[in-house]
Amino acid sequence: MSKRNRRYTEVFKQKAVELSHMSKTIKQVCNDLDVPVSVLSRWRREFREHGKNSFPGKGKPKLTDDQRKISELQKKLRESEIENQILKKAVSIFSKSDKRNLVL
Predict the structure, then answer these.
(1) Is 23 left (phi over 0), alpha (psi -120 to 50) or beta?
(2) Radius of gyration of the chain (CA)
(3) Tens-of-pLDDT digits for all 104 residues of the chain?
(4) Domain boundaries, the chain
């Protein structure tokens, strides 16, 4: 019976990668943990490429600390630009109503 769509926790993946680095063969670790070799190889590659940011969860991007900070700053910039546009419109509306009151 196949074990499709099996989900592993982040801790399990990290421990499996650590074991595979300490062990002589990846195949033996895979047999012990009942994990396909291709899956453990992918986990090792992800850990090598992303380090502590590996295995983020469902659909979350793998971001470094710098990338995370950049995305936060971009979000704040977008919010500030929207607030600025709203304030410009409000000033425009209030200045029009002030002009109407002065012309009496």
Answers:
(1) beta
(2) 27
(3) 455 678 888 889 989 999 988 887 889 989 888 999 999 999 999 888 877 777 776 666 677 788 889 999 999 999 999 999 999 999 988 887 766 665 54
(4) 7-62, 63-104
Residue pair 31/39 in contact by the 8 Å Cβ criterion: no
Closest of 48, 62, 38 to residue 14, by C-alpha: 48
Whole-number Å distance between alpha carbons of 33 and 27: 10
Q: Which residues of 80-98 are buried (b: 16+ CB within 10 A; e: fewer)?
A: eeeeeeeeeeeeeeeeeee
Q: What SS3 class is residue 74?
A: helix
User: Long-range contacts made by residues 68-72, C-beta under 8 angstroms, separation at least 24?
Assistant: none
Query: What does the block give as tokens for 103?
Result: 């012309």
Q: What is the DSSP letter of 4?
A: T
Q: Mutual orientation of helices 37-50 and 10-22 as an angle, nearest 10°?
A: 100
